[in-house]
């Protein structure tokens, strides 16, 4: 009769998976702390360089949390002001990235923002969501996306009123311009979208939209985007303008009240005073109400009548509902022209 074996089996195999997990966790934790130290140092270095260039960069508190799989940078009482006088401030900014993909970030302002416009005062911005994402930040031109959901704009009493009171959405996107060549370019593709924007009372947007809502989408390529830098007292577009920067291949559509238009322009630029210069072609439906609302309040009665006459000559006044009317708006001498008559100031970049 065979006696039962008294030899004990090793249990090392049972513990091996736990040991491997602990070692991996310890290694990942070391990587996380190393990464957060690098990010903290990069934030301080960039802030220092901006201060040396004349920027005002301040925050009352900074914390980095999110272990094990995220990096969440929490900043309190943030102010970033350019030498030009433009600034943005927020009670809280949260920037988050995956620890395994630190080249892609999402920045959220959960308590809203305050925008300072040089010479025009401050504007408080609140909304259901205010966020920006940036991917490929280790590249020359990262992909940027800014999104505001149900934003509300309120100017301070002593400041100049903001043209938009509220909107359903405001979006802005920027990415490197793609060509057939693999060589990097100095151009950026950008897109702006405004959905159901409402102008402030008695403001230009309200007049243009005929007390209705303004929805628009614009796309363009910014040439020589490498010159969009500095933020000095002259504004970020001043060096770009002097260096020959242009907006190319502008395409878009807009709806203002009952008026609709598809617009295009091959090239636009800014003049020495920062006003837009060039021509925009529109294929419009019922454009006369929007053109009437666009008329500058300082336009003389004679020019008002003349502009209406120009619209009539162009066929805008006689157009039936649904009929498309071609129009050309010209930006020159700091004004927006329809034929020989000025309608309003040309859009100002700086």
Task: Name some characteristics of this structure.
20-stranded antiparallel beta sheet; alpha+beta; 350 residues
Structure described in brief:
The chain has 350 residues and is of the alpha+beta class. It contains five helices and 20 strands. The radius of gyration is 27 Å and the shape is elongated.
Write up what this structure looks like.
The chain is elongated and about 85 Å long. By secondary structure, it is α+β, with helices and mostly antiparallel strands. It contains five helices and 20 strands. Strand 8 and strand 9 form a beta hairpin. It is 21% helix and 44% strand. The protein has a 20-stranded antiparallel sheet that branches.
Q: Rg from C-alpha positions?
A: 27 Å
Query: N-to-C terminal Cα separation, in Å?
Result: 102 Å
What would you call the shape? elongated
Beta-strand fraction estimate: 35-45%
- Helix-strand pattern: HEEEEEEEEEEEEEHEHEEEHHEEE
Helix and strand composition category: alpha+beta
Average pLDDT: 83
Largest sheet: 20 strands, antiparallel
Share of residues in helices: 10-25%
Extended strand count: 20
The count of helical stretches stands at 5
Q: Uncertain runs with pLDDT below 50, 5 residues or more?
A: 296-304
């Amino acid at each position: 009769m065979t006696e039962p074996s008294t030899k004990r089996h090793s249990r090392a195999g049972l513990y091996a998976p736990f040991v491997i997990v602990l070692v991996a966790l310890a290694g990942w934790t070391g990587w996380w702390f190393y990464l957060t130290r690098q990010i903290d140092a990069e934030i301080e270095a960039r802030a220092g360089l901006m201060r040396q260039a004349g920027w005002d960069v301040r925050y009352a508190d900074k914390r980095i949390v999110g272990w094990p799989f995220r990096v969440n940078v929490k900043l309190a009482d943030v102010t970033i002001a350019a030498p030009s006088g433009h600034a943005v401030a927020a009670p809280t900014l949260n920037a988050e990235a995956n620890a395994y993909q630190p080249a892609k970030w999402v920045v959220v302002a959960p308590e809203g923002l305050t925008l300072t416009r040089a010479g025009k005062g401050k504007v408080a911005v609140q909304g259901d969501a205010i966020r920006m994402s940036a991917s490929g930040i280790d590249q020359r031109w990262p992909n940027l996306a800014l999104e505001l959901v149900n934003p509300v704009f309120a100017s301070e009493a002593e400041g100049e009123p903001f043209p938009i009171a509220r909107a359903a959405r405001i979006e802005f996107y920027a990415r490197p311009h793609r060509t057939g060549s693999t060589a990097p370019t100095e151009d950026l593709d950008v897109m702006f979208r405004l959905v159901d924007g409402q102008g402030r009372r008695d403001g230009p947007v309200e007049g243009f939209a005929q007390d209705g809502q303004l929805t628009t989408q614009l796309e363009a390529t910014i040439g020589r985007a490498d010159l969009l830098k500095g933020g000095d007292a002259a504004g970020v577009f001043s060096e770009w303008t002097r260096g020959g920067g242009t907006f190319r291949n502008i395409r878009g559509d807009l709806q203002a009240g009952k008026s609709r238009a598809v617009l295009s322009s091959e090239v636009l630029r800014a003049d020495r005073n920062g006003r837009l210069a060039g021509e925009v072609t529109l294929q419009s439906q019922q454009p006369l109400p929007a053109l009437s609302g666009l008329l500058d309040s300082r336009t003389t009665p004679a020019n008002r009548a003349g502009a209406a006459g120009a619209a009539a000559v162009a066929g805008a006044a006689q157009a039936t509902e649904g009929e498309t009317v071609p129009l050309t708006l010209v930006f020159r001498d700091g004004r927006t022209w329809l034929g020989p008559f000025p309608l309003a100031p040309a859009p100002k970049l700086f």
